[in-house]
Design brief:
With 877 residues, this protein is an alpha/beta fold. The protein has three domains: 233 residues, Rossmann fold (3-Layer(aba) Sandwich); 219 residues, P-loop containing nucleotide triphosphate hydrolases (Rossmann fold, 3-Layer(aba) Sandwich); 235 residues, P-loop containing nucleotide triphosphate hydrolases (Rossmann fold, 3-Layer(aba) Sandwich). 36% of the residues lie in helices and 19% in strands. It has 19 helices and 31 strands. The chain has a ten-stranded mixed β-sheet with strand order 23-22-31-30-29-24-28-27-25-26, with helices on both faces. Strands 20-19-18-13-17-16-14-15-21 form a nine-stranded mixed β-sheet, with helices on both faces. The chain has a seven-stranded mixed β-sheet with strand order 5-4-6-7-3-8-9, with helices on both faces. Helix 18 links the parallel strand 27 and strand 28. It is elongated, with a radius of gyration of 50 Å. The N and C termini lie far apart (193 Å). The protein binds adenosine-5'-triphosphate (ATP) and magnesium ion (MG). The site of magnesium ion has 4 residues, from helix 7. Magnesium ion binds next to helix 7. This is FtsK/SpoIIIE family protein. Pfam families: FtsK_SpoIIIE (PF01580). GO terms for molecular function: ATP binding; DNA binding. Keywords: ATP-binding, Nucleotide-binding.
């Protein structure tokens, strides 16, 4: 058993040792595995760490890249947005207030209200569209909102030409206080206030504008004024911006009207700026939420925060408003004369009438004015300075460019002091003339006779045309031209500026002028003779009273601003006309025939000259310059066509004495013929020595021009010291002239008296020129000799050309009150009143004569029915 026990022990030991060995091996193995596992784990951990680091760095790089891209994109977007904003809101629409000024633009712009807050330093303005686009509703903080509204309005005003944006303010709570800073616009009508309770009327009024503009301005051709403007570059209507500030609750009809305007107004330039009224969001309505800091919003910018600009500085608002008001009150910039000119000049036929535009209507359409059988004649009226003369220029320019001188002729008369029509005649500086002008009368205010002369001349032309019409059996100019295509039958337009001067007073000139006018007006219509009369106040012209038939012929009426009573009694259109506008009415002033026209400035010398020169260069070669009558210019004998025609002849049966220029269209010289017949002496009467000397010199020089050097004798007797120089100068010019004075007067008269009563025939004429004949020395004897010469001389070709310094002195020379006056067959009176001339004038009445400088009254009893006014030729001319 022991053995077995030991054995068993040994066996157990062996077993144990075996197990131990196995365990040690297993342990070793396990240890090895553990170490390997630990190592593996370390490696994995290291790899993971490296990987993580790599990922992190890649992520960081990527993030940096993304950030960079983001920054670049944002900068690009912000830059583009800023540039686009600059384009959309240039100048006054977007400039900051610190250097802001009005800059009228050629199209409507968006308006800046603040800036968008972007995570980028580039400044991007927040803009809202208003003019031509839509409406703006301001909500939120009231005070900040007020500044937004003020800024918007100033920007809108500043981007348009003065007056093109009109504001209408409705501010019932503050009674206009909200718009008080714009008040300087009110007097010029650029800002109007609507009182509390005026909202319905205001909305109706704006709706009416929209309707009118749709119907008559857009007229189905355009969908909006903006489109019209883009297509035609015209903007016939202003923008009307109604500012509605806190109206409270609206009634249903008001709501409806407001909705209508919000829908339809913008296309017609009617825009609403609303604060404190509930408005539903809709297309074309921009909502601005006023708030401080970053909390403001503008609906078109979505959720982007907006920082609003402060309001415009008061000084800038005031200065801008003042400037706009001044510009509006000064009136619109003048239209250019060129706008009246046709594409091709001288292409129209005047057969049936004369048609030309006079300017633009407020809708921008040219207004045509016609002179024809109806209306045949025009009256133009307007207070001083309203542009009558300018309108005449513009009209003449438009006509002259359309019709050639063969179609149209002008006769022009200006009764106002000045030179307004002088531009049409050749002058010292500019030799051109308007080829259509046949006559220019300037400074005729004291020579109303020249007006008569023109009317008489036209009367003659009328007769000539009527005779031709009769010959061709036609009744008007168009038919006459058709029957006589070779004839020269231009339409005649006679323009009389300030014609009231011609018709003023109740004298013979006015009476004859009215008669002539009436005849011309009545019969001229069918013969192509048209009258244009301009005056400050037609109703003041006495001579037209009681002549309704005459006035009725002038069915074309043109009224300048504030013209009175030229249109029909109830037609007050001229009262509210802006400056440089006119109402043209071709139906005697009937209300429904009114057409408003904006007249271009034709006074501008340069523009006018360009036209005149062009037409002048085109003139037919045979067309000479117009006759120029200038009442302020002393005519020269050397220029007288009648004087130039005088030439020496062997036999001069009836020597002609020229005296001065007659006041007529043809520049004739007044004349008296010294035939061999009783009474053929000439007396010059009055105290004005220069004029008397000038007349005697003209008379003697014109006589001398008809004789060969020894063909006539002249004796000059000068009895006035002061006239000596003139007498001597004359004597030196005359061939065969004897000169005498007070010392030699007695034997000269004795000699000449003997010659006058001699029985042998005279061989040649003898002209005795006496200066101051009333100062004859030698008492009764020489006086008697002078009477003998006056009575008997002419029969023997011995004629006296004498100057007496008064009519009564001449009477004395003839033998006193009871004596006959027929030895003086012709006289020229200077400063002698008509009544004093009665003894030398036939009939019971004295001539109507009120002396005036450098004018004389001439009467020749052998040819004249009445006396004529003449202008002495300048001495030494
Ligand atoms: N359409 C116009 N555009 C610009 N300026 C104008 C226009 N019409 C007139 N004017 C200017 O106004 C001034 C007065 O015009 P104009 O002489 O034609 O007036 P008027 O009515 O004839 O005055 P008056 O009765 O004193 O003769 C002028 O300086 C003229 O240049
Ligand atoms: Mg004038």
């Amino acid at each position: 058993m022991a053995e077995s026990t030991a054995q068993q022990v040994m066996e157990i030991r062996a077993g144990l040792s075996h197990a131990l060995g196995a365990a040690a091996i297993a342990l070793d193995r396990a240890r090895g595995a553990h170490a390997a596992a630990v190592e593996r784990r370390r490696r994995v951990e290291a790899a993971a760490e490296a990987r993580l680091r790599k990922i992190d760095s890649a992520r960081d790089n990527r993030l940096a890249e993304i950030d960079e891209q983001h920054r670049t994109d944002l900068a690009a977007y912000a830059g583009a947005a800023a540039a686009a904003a600059d384009r959309a809101a240039p100048g006054a629409a977007g400039d900051p207030w610190d250097d802001w000024q009005a800059t009228p633009l050629d199209r409507a712009a968006e308006l800046r209200v603040g800036r968008l807050l972007l995570p980028h330093p580039e400044e991007v303005p927040a803009l809202v569209p208003l003019l031509d686009r839509g409406h703006v509703v301001v909500r939120g903080d009231r005070t900040l909102g007020d500044e937004v509204v003020a800024g918007l309005l100033l920007r809108a005003l500043g981007t348009a030409a003065p007056g093109r944006v009109q504001l209408i303010g409705y501010d019932p709570e503050h009674l206009g206080g909200g718009l008080a800073r714009f008040a300087p616009l009110a007097p010029a009508g650029v800002l109007t206030f609507v009182g509390p309770g005026g909202l319905p009327a205001l909305l109706d009024d704006l709706t009416a504008h929209v309707r009118r503009i749709n119907e008559t301005v857009l007229a189905g051709e355009y969908t909006s004024l903006r489109e019209l403007n883009a297509a035609t570059h015209r903007r016939p209507e202003p923008w009307r911006v109604a500012v509605l500030l806190g109206a409270g609750e609206l009634s249903r009809p008001e709501q409806a009207q407001l909705q209508r305007l919000l829908r339809t107004g913008a296309a017609c330039g009617v825009h609403l700026v609303i604060q404190g009224l509930p408005v539903q969001a809709a297309d074309g309505i921009e909502f601005i939420t006023a708030a401080s800091g970053d909390h403001a919003r503008v609906s078109s910018a979505g959720a982007l925060p907006v920082r609003l600009d402060g309001g415009p500085p008061q000084a800038v608002v005031a200065a801008t408003c003042r400037r706009i008001a001044e510009a509006v009150e000064a009136g619109p910039a003048p239209v250019a004369l060129d706008s009246l000119l046709p594409q091709e000049e001288w292409k129209q036929s005047a057969a049936t009438g004369l048609s030309a535009p006079l300017g633009d209507s407020p809708q921008g359409v040219p207004v045509q004015v016609t002179l024809a059988d109806y209306p045949p004649h025009a009256l133009i009226a307007g207070p001083s300075g309203t542009g009558k003369t300018n309108l005449i220029y513009a009209w003449m320019g438009a006509l002259a460019a359309r019709y050639s001188p063969a179609e149209l002729a002008f006769y022009l008369l200006d009764f106002k002091e000045g030179v307004s029509f002088a531009r049409f005649a050749p002058g010292r500086r500019d030799p051109s003339w308007l080829p259509h002008v046949r006559l220019v009368g300037l400074n005729v205010n004291t020579d109303r006779e020249f007006g008569l002369a023109l009317l008489r001349f036209l009367g003659e032309e009328l007769r000539r045309r009527a005779d031709a019409a009769k010959r061709y059996e036609v009744t008007n100019l168009a038919e006459l031209r058709a029957e006589d295509p070779e004839g020269s039958w231009p339409r005649i337009v006679a323009v009389v500026d300030e014609f009231q001067v011609l018709l003023s007073g109740r004298d013979a000139v006015a009476a004859e002028a009215v008669d002539l006018l009436e005849d011309l007006a009545r019969r001229g219509r069918s013969q192509g003779i048209h009258l244009i009369l301009a005056s400050q106040d037609v109703s003041g012209i006495e001579a037209l009273w009681g002549r309704p038939a005459l006035v009725a012929q002038f069915s074309l009426r043109i009224a300048l601003p504030r013209a009175r009573r030229i249109l029909a009694e109830t037609n007050t259109a001229a009262e509210s006309l802006p400056r440089y506008h006119a109402v043209v009415n071709a139906d005697s002033g009937a209300l429904e025939a009114n057409k408003v026209v904006r007249v271009p400035a034709a006074g501008d010398r340069e523009r006018w000259n360009a036209l005149q020169h062009r037409l002048w260069r085109k003139r037919p070669p045979e067309l000479g310059p117009p006759r120029l009558f200038d009442g302020d210019v002393v005519p020269r004998l050397a220029d007288s066509p009648d004087f130039r025609r005088l030439a020496p002849a062997e036999q001069v049966a009836a020597p002609m004495v020229l005296l001065g220029e007659t006041i007529d269209v043809a520049a004739r010289s007044a004349r008296t013929v010294l035939r061999r017949a009783p009474g053929r002496n000439l007396a010059v009467l009055g105290t004005r020595m220069d004029e008397a000397c000038a007349i005697l010199a003209t008379a003697a020089r014109s006589l001398a021009a008809q004789f060969p050097p020894d063909g006539a004798r002249f004796s000059i007797l000068c009895l006035d010291q002061d006239a000596r120089a003139a007498a001597a100068a004359l004597c030196a010019e005359l061939p065969e002239c004897g000169s005498f004075d007070a010392d030699s007067a007695d034997w000269l008269l004795e000699d000449v008296a003997a010659e006058a009563s001699a029985s042998f025939p005279s061989d040649r004429p003898h002209f005795l020129v006496i200066y101051a004949a009333d100062a004859l020395p030698g008492g009764k004897e020489t006086a008697e000799q002078l009477r003998t010469i006056l009575r008997q001389g002419p029969e023997r070709r011995l004629h006296v050309l004498g100057w007496w310094r008064g009519a009564a002195l001449l009477r004395d020379a003839l033998g006193g009150q009871a004596s006959r006056t027929d030895p003086i067959g012709a006289w020229v009176a200077l400063d002698v009143h008509g009544s004093e001339l009665a003894p030398f004038y036939p009939g019971a009445r004295a001539p109507a004569w009120y002396p005036r400088p450098w004018r004389a009254l001439h009467f020749d009893r052998s040819v004249h029915r009445g006396a004529e006014v003449i202008i002495p030729y300048g001495a030494g001319s």
